[in-house]
Amino acid sequence: MRSKIKWTTSVPLVAVATLVLTWGRDLPPPLVVISALLLAGAVLAAVHHAEVVAHRVGEPFGSLVLAVAVTVIEVALIVTLMISGGEKAQALARDTVFAAVMITCNGILGISLLVGAVRRRIAVFNPEGTGGALAAVATIAALSLVLPSFTTSRPGPQFSPAQLAFAAVASLGLYLLFVLVQTRRHRDYFLPITTAGEVIDAEEHLDPPTARAALTSLGLLLVALVAVVGLAKGVSPAIESAVAGAGLPQAVVGVVIALLVLLPETIAAVRAAARDRMQTSLNLALGSAMASIGLTIPAIAVAMIWLEGPLLLGLGGTQTVLLALTVVVGTLTVVPGRANVLQGGIHLGLLAVFLFLAGSP
């Protein structure tokens, strides 16, 4: 136990120290490798501390803490890259947010269903809470990522300033409404349930950590997430060079960033599914998708006050079809409140299609 605590404490601190020493510098290949290893260690440490905090505050607050923390740092990364990226970064927010939605709603959700179904033959969850979360994700995704391709106030897939402000306020308002429903009015809709439909309100056979331990883990969680995103930015030039060298589209950079940033939530969701806490996994998947849009779009709207150039938000035809298919398949998955390996495999198949078309549009 001492060894584990020491490891989960020291790795985030070393990662942040490395981030400070390498910030704003061109990294040679050996430092890129070291940064990548520290990034992986920070991801695992973040998952550990997120689970400590989640155990202390209980569901669905634990999932909410991790989703919001990761998204806030993701927003900071997107804004930072947009400031220094020039014309290439005009569509970075769209590409990263759309990639986050596809990864969470198909990747995290699909692998969680697969793990849960393999363990119990049938993965059981609450359709009321999960269905409401999916409806909120579909609404704000269509508002922020689909409508810009059909408005006529500005040429191209972009909002006018007034439209962007309205979309930002509406997205944030819907997200806050969902959080209120999730944490207060209908909290029981987002608690894990057994295969018999009984609500699991606490982890069995485990004493919750002390308030001091939970606060320490919360601080280390934030440190680890800062390290994850900062080191991801540090290795992003190498990623961009590799993408360009492979002849892949610029949108692949947004996909890679989303994959890196969502690693902590992915691991946490799979662990929850392995413990037969399927609702926790779905809270993480859909809550992360909602936070990625509901917090990113308002932040980008504010950042556009001083950022130059257009902000391309509207999805193309192929991306819109994938988003629509994800919503339809997700609806059919969550309505029964029960899923098997077939549903998990279908969602992972949609993720594979997205990844393939991102590299070969």
Task: Explain the layout of strands and helices.
Blueprint: H1 2-22, H2 29-57, H3 61-85, H4 92-120, E1 123-124, H5 127-146, H6 161-185, H7 211-245, H8 251-261, H9 263-274, H10 278-303, H11 317-334, E2 338-339, H12 341-359
Antiparallel strand pairs: 1-2
Helix pairs in contact: 1-2, 1-7, 2-3, 2-7, 2-9, 3-7, 3-10, 4-8, 4-9, 4-10, 4-11, 4-12, 5-6, 5-10, 5-11, 6-10, 7-8, 9-10, 11-12
Characterize the main sheet: 2 strands, antiparallel
Unreliable residue stretches: none
Backbone CA Rg: 20 Å
* Share of helix, binned: over 70%
Total of DSSP H or I helical runs spanning 4+ residues: 12
N-to-C order of helices and strands = HHHHEHHHHHHHEH
- Assembly form of the protein: single chain
Average pLDDT reading: 82
Q: Would you count the extended β strands for me?
A: 2
Structural class: mainly alpha
DSSP strand (E) fraction?
under 5%
Question: Could you explain the architecture of this structure?
Answer:
The chain is an all-alpha fold. It is built from twelve helices and two strands. A two-stranded antiparallel ribbon has the order 1-2. Helix 1 packs across helix 2, helix 4 packs across helix 8 and helix 5 runs parallel beside helix 10. It is globular, with a radius of gyration of 20 Å. 48% of the residues are buried.
